[in-house]
Design a protein that fits this description.
With 339 residues, this protein is of the alpha/beta class. Helices cover 34% and strands 24% of the residues. It has a domain of 89 residues.
Length: 339
C-alpha cells in the first residue's frame, strides 16, 4: 500500500483571551490507500480540530496551524495557496461533517448542494450535474432519488440527511474521505447502515477513510488502525487488533473498560473514567492524563512521556507501559470480546 496522507507533528493552536489553547499538539499518523484509520477519544481531545486542520478549515483568527506537516501524496498542503487547496478540498479530500442539519444549507435543495460540488470540481454542465447528483443519491441508498433531489434538508430524516452528506462528500470520487462522527445522534440501526455504506463505498472506490468517533465499538468494527487521542496528544497508535488485544495506555484501557459487556447485569453501573478532560489552556506539566490516571507517578506529573514503540505496529506515550500493574486493570476486559 502507498501512503496517501502523512500527518507529522501537527500543532493547531487557538489564541484566546484566556491564553493559548493547544487543541492539537504534536500529532502524527499515516493513512494508506484503501485503509481505514480511526481516531478515538472523548470530546475536547482534538479529534475534530485535527480533521479541520487537514482540510485547512481552521478559522483564522483565533486559530492557527502553528507547526508540522500534512503531506497528501508527498505534497505538503500547508505550503500551497488557498486556490490550490480549494482544488483539493472536496475533490481529492472530502469530509462528512459532524452534524448534517447544520452542515447542509437549509435554503437549497439536496440536489443543488450535490450539484455545486460537481460543477465546481468536475467542470460539467448543469444537466450532467443533475443526473450525477441523482445517481449519487441512489448510490448512498436514498429511496426515490428523483424526488429527494428536489427536497430540502428539513424534509428528510436524520439518517437521510447523513446520506446526503455522504453523497456530497463522494460526488467527485475523492481519494480520502474524512468522516467526523458520522453516526452521532442516529438510531442504532441507522448507524449500522451508515457504517456499512461507508465500508461498501470504500471497497468500490478504493479510497482511504479517516473516521473520527468516541465509540470504540465503531473503531473495532471498521478500522484497520486506531489513533487514541487525549487532550491534544496521541496517547496510543497502531494496528487495531494489537491495541484492542494489548492496550498499553491507561486511557485506552479506561475507554475499553467503559464498553458495556454482555456479562453486565441490569443493575450494574457502567465503568467510567473519573474526572474530565483538562482545559486546553491549562494542561498539566507532564502527562496530560496524569490528573485522571490511577497509576500516575510523581514522574508522570513532571515529565511528558515520549511516544515509544511497543511493537512494529504499536506505539504508546506512557511511563508505565511496560509494568505488569496495568495487567490488573486489563483483566476486566476479558469479557468485552470487542475483537
Amino acid at each position: 500500500m502507498s501512503k496517501l496522507l502523512e500527518v507529522k507533528n501537527l500543532k493547531t493552536y487557538f489564541y484566546t483571551d484566556d491564553g493559548v489553547s493547544k487543541a492539537v499538539d504534536d500529532v502524527s499518523f499515516n493513512l494508506e490507500k484503501g485503509e481505514t484509520l480511526g481516531i478515538v477519544g472523548e470530546s475536547g481531545c482534538g479529534k475534530s480540530v485535527t480533521s479541520l486542520s487537514i482540510m485547512r478549515l481552521i478559522a483564522t483568527p483565533p486559530g492557527k496551524i502553528a507547526g508540522g506537516e500534512i503531506l497528501f501524496k508527498g505534497r505538503d498542503i500547508l505550503k500551497i495557496s488557498e486556490k490550490e487547496m480549494r482544488e483539493i478540498r472536496g475533490n481529492d479530500i472530502s469530509m462528512i461533517f459532524q452534524e448534517p442539519m447544520t452542515s447542509l444549507n437549509p435554503v437549497f435543495t439536496c440536489g443543488n448542494q450535490i450539484e455545486e460540488v460537481l460543477i465546481l470540481h468536475q467542470n460539467i454542465s448543469k444537466q450532467d450535474a443533475k443526473q450525477k447528483a441523482i445517481d449519487m443519491l441512489k448510490l448512498v441508498g436514498i429511496p426515490a432519488p428523483e424526488q429527494r433531489y428536489n427536497e430540502y434538508p428539513h424534509q428528510l430524516s436524520g439518517g437521510m440527511r447523513q446520506r446526503v452528506m455522504i453523497a456530497i462528500a463522494l460526488a467527485c470520487n475523492p481519494e480520502i474521505l474524512i468522516a467526523d462522527e458520522p453516526t452521532t445522534a442516529l438510531d442504532v440501526t441507522v448507524q449500522a447502515q451508515i457504517l456499512e455504506l461507508i465500508e461498501k463505498l470504500q471497497r468500490d472506490l478504493g479510497m482511504g477513510v479517516l473516521i473520527i468517533t468516541h465509540d470504540l465499538g465503531v473503531i473495532a468494527e471498521v478500522s484497520d488502525k486506531v489513533c487514541v487521542m487525549y487532550a491534544s496528544k496521541v496517547a496510543e497508535y497502531g494496528d487495531v487488533k494489537d491495541i484492542f488485544k494489548n492496550p498499553k495506555h491507561p486511557y485506552t484501557i479506561g475507554l475499553m473498560n467503559s464498553i458495556p459487556k454482555s456479562t453486565d447485569s441490569k443493575k450494574s453501573k457502567l465503568a467510567t473514567i473519573e474526572g474530565t478532560v483538562p482545559a486546553a489552556t491549562h494542561y498539566p506539566q507532564g502527562c496530560h492524563f496524569c490528573t485522571r490516571c490511577v497509576f500516575a507517578l510523581e514522574k508522570c506529573w513532571k515529565e511528558e512521556p515520549p511516544i515509544e514503540k511497543v511493537s512494529n505496529n504499536h506505539t504508546v506515550a506512557c511511563w508505565r507501559k511496560d509494568e505488569p500493574l496495568l495487567d490488573m486493570y486489563k483483566s476486566v476486559l476479558l469479557d468485552a470480546k470487542v475483537i
